[in-house]
Automatic annotation (TrEMBL):
Pfam families: Pantoate_ligase. InterPro entries: Cyt_trans-like, Pantoate_ligase, Pantoate_ligase_C, Rossmann-like_a/b/a_fold. This is Pantothenate synthetase. One of its GO terms (molecular function) is ligase activity. The lineage of its organism: Bacteria, Pseudomonadati, Pseudomonadota, Gammaproteobacteria, Pseudomonadales.
Length: 283
């Protein structure tokens, strides 16, 4: 396994693999890899013959005052984890390789509607940054398959819509969220939590489970159920950013007709913002 830092080197390596008849897989990440990322890479290794993992903390998707500078950068540890499971190639460009003329006048990919609301409201410009960098990565690697986590549910919806609308010749696959034993979704940002915050953090997923249980038991007063959840999070010291029920297929607001629902939440523990979601069916 090699780590390449330039687009030209990576393109040459992928093109050699393709000439050997290999199917190419891509797993885009921002590094600081945990078992959630590893599950995506293992799926890519099962489904394709040559797996590229990109590691790039993309400044275009961070807003002012967010954690771009403090985001954990752990390339040697990431390399060891990826080597151990048989990853074929790491692509770890620096910012000037990806944005040689800077970000100011750079082309941007906007995916309306699905990018709006939820994380799109709290992080203006975030999904434009994600869609732009994922487009670049897809154009650089030209994979047959690209895999993303369902933990970032709205991000996955944005990327699927972008690939569809722009006729990108790639299969986009979403994989289930990997959780700690207490239910907390694994996330690089969990590393920012104090011991006390970490012990309260599983309440985010528990609250989503309680919302699902109430609706599956027959309640249809969506706003009251959401308000009860908000009150519970606040009482435990979590500050909800959003808590919402959407149609899992198109992220439009859920109503009493919606069959496949996703409950989505973002909440602050101190300055750390965690997200999670839970999909469930209503009859
Ligand atoms: N717990 C998880 N289970 C499955 N996939 C995950 C999990 N966490 C992240 N991913 C996926 O891994 C890919 C890279 O995500 P990223 O590097 O941002 O990791 P992260 O841990 O989510 O970090 P952050 O704290 O920035 O949200 C994304 O497709 C993301 O959805
Ligand atoms: C998809 C991604 C790698 C694009 O920077 C990032 O948003 C992430 O890690 O989820
Ligand atoms: N995991 C999504 C990337 C981000 O929070 O910027």
């Amino acid at each position: 396994m090699n780590t390449l830092h330039t687009i030209a080197q990576l393109r040459a390596a992928v093109s050699r693999a393709r000439q050997e008849g290999k199917r190419i897989g891509l797993v885009p990440t921002m590094g600081n890899l945990h078992a959630g990322h590893i599950a995506l890479v293992e799926k890519a290794l099962q489904r394709t013959d040559y797996v590229v993992v990109s590691i790039f903390v993309n400044p275009m998707q961070f807003g002012a005052g967010e954690d771009l500078d403090s985001y954990p950068r752990t390339l040697p540890e990431d390399q060891a984890k990826l080597h151990e499971i048989g990853t074929h190639m790491i692509f770890a460009p620096n910012v000037s390789e990806m944005y040689p003329e800077g970000m100011e006048g750079h082309t941007r990919v906007a995916v309306p509607v699905v990018s709006e609301g939820l994380c799109g409201s709290s992080r203006p410009g975030h999904f434009e940054g994600v869609a732009t960098v994922v487009s670049k990565l897809l154009n650089i690697v030209q994979p047959d398959l690209a895999i993303f986590g369902q933990k970032d549910f709205q991000q996955l919806a944005v990327i699927r819509k972008m690939a569809h609308d722009l006729c990108m010749p790639v299969q986009i696959m979403g994989e289930p969220t990997v959780r700690a034993a207490d239910g907390l979704a694994l996330s690089s940002r969990n590393g920012y939590l104090s011991a006390e915050q970490r012990s309260n953090a599983p309440l985010l997923y528990q609250t989503l489970q309680q919302i699902a249980a109430k609706l599956q038991a027959g309640r249809r007063d969506f706003s009251a159920v959401i308000e009860e959840a908000r009150v519970q999070l606040i009482a435990a010291g979590l500050q909800p950013d959003y808590l919402d029920l959407r149609d899992a297929h198109n992220l439009q607001p859920a109503d009493v007709q919606t069959k496949d629902v996703v409950a989505l939440a973002a909440a602050f523990l101190g300055t750390t913002r965690l997200i999670d979601n839970l999909q469930f069916s209503l009859s």
